[in-house]
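Take a minute with the sequence and fold tokens given here and flag any structure token that looks odd. Thanks in advance.
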Amino acid sequence: MRKLTQSVLILAAAVLLYFSAAAGRDALAQERTLAQALLQFEANVTWSAVSADWRGARKGWVATVKGASSPNVIAAQLVALEEAMRWSAVQQSWRERRSDWLSEMRTAQTASVVAAGLLELEQATLWSAVDARWRQRRDPWIGWVKSIR
């Protein structure tokens, strides 16, 4: 009986370890998807829609996003992009929402929360602030970001 109990415990531990590893791989895949979505959005924001300082900061920002190891790192980079965007690049209503959005992004711990923040910033961004090709890219991109859990 004792050997059976030990065997069951070992099997249960192995199953838990397997599912934990699978969940970790899924979380990493979600973070990679989120990072790629952020990079794609930023690549479609025009230079005139961001501060002059963004040109110098962008290379390091891209490297940080590509190397991000957690949703809160990606959230911090999303905040950095938003802070570089000019007021003329976003809807007037963003001024009212921004403070709460910043608080949410600065405390975000999951890919789904950061994805929702990315979608919200994109929706607040004016068409004049993005490349003309964004209109064709946008719908598939939104579906991709919405798939992040």
Q: What stands out?
A: The two ends are 43 Å apart (CA to CA). The chain has a mean pLDDT of 88. Helices lie at 2-44, 52-66, 71-84, 94-106, 111-124, 134-146. Residues 27-146 form one domain.
